[in-house]
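The following record pairs a protein chain with its ligand, SN-glycerol-1-phosphate.
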Amino acid sequence: MNVYESILERRRKGPLHMTLLDPDKQTPQEAAALSSEAAGAGTDAIMVGGSTGVTQDKVDATVLAIKEASKLPVILFPASAANLSPHADALYFMSLLNSRDPRLIVGEQRLAAPIVRAWGLEAIPMAYLVVEPGMRAGEVGDAELISRKNPIVAVQYALAAQLLGMKLVYLEAGSGAPEPVPERVIRAVRDAIDIPVVVGGGIRTPEAAKAVTRAGADIVVTGTIVEVTREGESLRRIIDAVKAG
Ligand code: 1GP
């Protein structure tokens, strides 16, 4: 069973939680320690990526250290074709559909494709949609941010993603966003498509995790909380809230 199939199988039992680790924010050893804590707290996978300052060396070392420390699938969440590693279990082959820059819609993907093919890395095609306020992801991605007030554009992009054959839709408020993606945007997208909806950015409390899950998130992503608190207990409460649906 590949990583995408295992995500679908787990989803049949309930919503998933994934932990995002940015290779630029800690050493590989620290990332390994955080991922074993996250595994203990019940997370379903580790995502490795970040918007800036990430190099192939850092990604490789971080992925290898995490793989040694836990049995969780490691999925790359790359900002560019220079952020890949053959040691990961899978790659979100993502397109920032609401970017103004074609490089982030299909240009980096063009450069990455032959590498991914040569490595035999599992690629999971994913639409990446940046919602206000977007934070660094919005800036670096030159995103025409999706409004928090009006879900119509988010639904249009999500439907287009499904028709293009993508396997996941990621609604991103931006790492460290003051608020997560609004519930009505999540609900509208969830109701419009059949593929799983991933929600991340600004989820720091069990209440916020519960709200996005109830709104329809199939996969909830947290990053900052594990990096800032560096202890498993707050993460465990968030994961429990996701799993309780
Ligand atoms: C960023 O959605 C992720 O890509 C995680 O965001 O760091 O706010 O948890 P946080």
